[in-house]
Each structure stands twice: as structure tokens, then as C-alpha cells.
Amino acid sequence: MAGGLEHLTEVSELVRCAGGDSELQAAALLHDLVEDTDVELDQIEAGFGERVRQIVAAMTEDESIEDYLARKEEHRTRACEAGREVALLFVADKLSNARRMRRAEKEPDARKIGHYGATLETMRQAYPDLPLLSELEAELSAIRVETQHSPA
Fold this sequence. Notes:
Blueprint lengths: L3 H14 L4 H9 L2 H4 L4 H8 L1 H9 L9 H14 L2 H20 L6 H17 L6 H17 L3
Helix pairs in contact: 1-2, 1-7, 2-5, 4-5, 6-7, 6-8, 7-8, 7-9, 8-9
């Protein structure tokens, strides 16, 4: 999986600390399965119920959209429109990814940083009091500062 078990558990813990219930935490642990494995949404529903399936479905990118920016925009919009819980999970996922990006010893992917910034703005407009927004903003600011001050 893209982020591995560490990423999934971090996202689930972020969701838990932000007040997410056990089903949202389960969806956080499972949110990359459909994209990264052969597991299908019906299997998730069979094991965890319809609500977890719906959340994971909202967290799954539409791979039929080939253009990176268009795919990310569609996914961000769909996650936001799916409701506050999915928006929280989406932000937790981006926060975890941004933290991993900061810990990595390579130049951050500018497209991802742009997507995370757009996520921050989209979710802030829809859910101004959503937990984790300020943490994502701080992480993105730190990445930008570190990128500006890193040797070329």
C-alpha cells in the first residue's frame, strides 16, 4: 500500500483524536485498500458494514480520470460533498501524507503540495471548524519554508 500500515494507523489515530467514531476509524484503516489491493467495496461492506463501505468509496479515487490534477480535484470535491466525516478523514489522510513528506529526505512533490493546499481551502470553506485543518495548514507552511531554505 502507498503509505503502508504506519500511514493507515496514523490516519485512524488522527480521526480518533478528532472525535471520529469506531466506524470512521475503521474506514481510516481501510481507506487505501481499494486503490492499492484487489479488495473490492463489496468485501469491505461484508466485513464492516454499509457505512464503512460508503466512507471508503468516497475515499477512493476515480482511476478512470487520467489527468492527475483533474482526478485530484474530482476526488477532493466528492469527499467534501460526502459530508463532514469523509472530509475529516480526507484531511487526516493529507495531514499524514504531508508529515511523511516532511520526514522524507527528498524534495516534496509540488503537485501533491498544491493538492493538499487546495484540500485545505476546499474543506475550510465547507467546514470552517473541521478538526485538523490548522494542523494541515501548519504542516504545509513548514514544508514550504523548508523547501525555500533547502540547498539547490
